[in-house]
Write a sequence for this structure.
């Protein structure tokens, strides 16, 4: 019989395989949701696209709402690592940059990068929230978290320089919350064909106009 120590090297391999399977399922879910919509992307369709069984989909991620949320999360940060946005390099650089305009430029670049990855699945999420109660609850939580992040950004800029005297922090947070909605990237970059850099520069100017004195 093998000893415990002899079996231990198998666990990292199993964890790596499980992580790879989970990521493959999430990627398949993202593609299926974007191509077929929330209703059309059944668990079986996603399982077939990932090359796994239905049971594997449920074990690796969960049901359809969990799959949609996982696809959203991965698209937001670009990977499946448990590192929240505030701890990501661009967010850290935004906080550490002493010049408010440069900090805004870094943040605008981060939002443009997120929008490029997120916009397609975000639109699916928005539509699904209108008909599925479980998805609606997740969508509402996402909006609350996004507003929290927007207000946090306003606080970061406000700590570097006085904000516009005619806009209070709550209103400024609402404006940033609207500007960082991924549907805005979808409208301008995908539907209107703006290059990402043009969107980033426009967003930077919009942030400056909302937050900084003339």
């Amino acid at each position: 019989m093998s000893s415990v120590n002899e079996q231990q090297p198998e666990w990292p391999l199993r964890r790596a395989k499980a992580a790879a399977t989970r990521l493959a399922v999430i990627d398949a879910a993202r593609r299926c949701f974007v191509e077929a919509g929330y209703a059309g992307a059944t668990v079986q369709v996603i399982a077939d696209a990932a090359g796994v069984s239905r049971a594997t989909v449920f074990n690796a991620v969960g049901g359809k709402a969990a799959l949609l949320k996982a696809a959203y999360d991965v698209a937001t940060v670009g990977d499946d690592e448990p590192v929240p946005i505030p701890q990501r390099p661009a967010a850290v650089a935004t906080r550490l940059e002493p010049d408010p305009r440069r900090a805004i430029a870094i943040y605008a670049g981060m939002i443009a990068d997120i929008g490029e990855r997120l916009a397609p699945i975000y639109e699916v999420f928005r539509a699904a929230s209108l008909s599925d109660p479980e998805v609606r609850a997740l969508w509402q939580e996402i909006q609350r978290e996004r507003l929290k992040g927007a207000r946090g950004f306003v606080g970061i800029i406000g700590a570097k320089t006085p904000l516009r005297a005619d806009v209070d922090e709550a209103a400024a947070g609402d404006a940033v919350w609207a500007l960082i909605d991924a549907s805005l990237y979808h409208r301008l970059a995908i539907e209107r064909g703006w290059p990402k850099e043009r969107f980033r520069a426009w967003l930077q100017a919009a942030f400056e106009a909302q937050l900084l004195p003339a």
Remarks:
- Residues 83-214 form one domain.
- The radius of gyration is 20 Å.
- The chain has a mean pLDDT of 94.
- The chain has two domains: 1-64, 83-214.
